[in-house]
Amino acid sequence: MANDGSEEFKLVSPSISNEGRLPRQYTDEGQGAKKNISPPLEWYNLPQGTKTLALVVEDIDAPDPDGPIVPWTQWVMVNIPPSAKKLPEGFSGKEDMGEEYAGLKEGNNDLKVPGWCAPKLPTHGHRVQFKLFALDYEVNLGNKVTKEKLLDSIEGHVLGEAILIAKY
């Protein structure tokens, strides 16, 4: 349950069921215009006091060539306004996001560029974790937003977390 006694803070996608398969158009295996586009996401029941949202998407089964499994960051977003209820399909990389998304910033993925980095894997069976954080403050990380900087800065400011897992 959320802090206000309502239902649980949830992250969902109209295109992906939790623990379901990540459709091809959201991967590097799609075709033409239906390739490497960010999936649609929606959220419900924000915790009371939420000032902004932050999103981190990772392949949580990515192997490090020299060692253990190290999550691969595919997408980072900060300062998603709580008044926004969704990110539409193909939202990543848009020049004009509209007034509804004022203040939102896309961070760098593990390719060191901002925006959605669609999975392209030598083997299938990996899990892609979409984690949405409800925060009690607006994140200010300067020009270069990374997952590491985000996670360090939000410590003690997380009101809730919502997770969606897709299989690739």
TrEMBL record:
Pfam families cross-referenced by the UniProt entry: PBP
Annotated stretches, region: Disordered: 1-41
SUPFAM superfamilies assigned: PEBP-like
NCBIfam families documented for this protein: YbhB/YbcL family Raf kinase inhibitor-like protein
PANTHER family, per the entry: PEBP (PHOSPHATIDYLETHANOLAMINE-BINDING PROTEIN) FAMILY PROTEIN (PTHR30289:SF1), UNCHARACTERIZED PROTEIN YBCL-RELATED (PTHR30289)
Protein's name according to its UniProt entry: Uncharacterized protein
Species, as recorded: Lupinus angustifolius (Narrow-leaved blue lupine)
